[in-house]
């Protein structure tokens, strides 16, 4: 401030070229004087206002930085929580995947075992059916052979059998039946 006042005082010692008494008609020097007076007044009175404006601006900037740091910290915290949740979900997904594969393998084995049992039962049913059909066919063949043998025997008996032979056969059969009856009594 002393420099500004000194500059005003030193202006007073300048020679006034083309002046009327105490009025300075030199436009260049009067503009410098007016400018220095205006600047001095602005600096003197505006210093507090400018200082307040700069302090307010500084506080707003600091508050903005502080809020940004808080937001950054919150964002970092949320990011860490999200990462932790992601890791947890990935572990659960891996567990589900492993359990799913195990379940699929278990179901596959159960299905294969069930199919083998079913095939085994079908094989048994097939074998039983084949045996039954073989037995039935054998019985049918036996019946036909027996019927043919019986018809052949009857035909032979009828052609060879005379009345006398017929009566002896009947008597012999009656005798055998009588002896069997006596043994059972």
TrEMBL record:
Any one of the GO CC terms: chloroplast thylakoid membrane
Transmembrane segments: 32-50
InterPro entries linked: ATP_synth_b/b'su_bac/chlpt
Major location (coarse): membrane
Coiled-coil residue spans: 72-99
More about this protein: In plastids the F-type ATPase is also known as CF(1)CF(0).
Quaternary structure (record): F-type ATPases have 2 components, F(1) - the catalytic core - and F(0) - the membrane proton channel. F(1) has five subunits: alpha(3), beta(3), gamma(1), delta(1), epsilon(1). F(0) has four main subunits: a(1), b(1), b'(1) and c(10-14). The alpha and beta chains form an alternating ring which encloses part of the gamma chain. F(1) is attached to F(0) by a central stalk formed by the gamma and epsilon chains, while a peripheral stalk is formed by the delta, b and b' chains.
Protein's name in the database: ATP synthase subunit b, chloroplastic
Name of the gene encoding the protein in the UniProt record: atpF
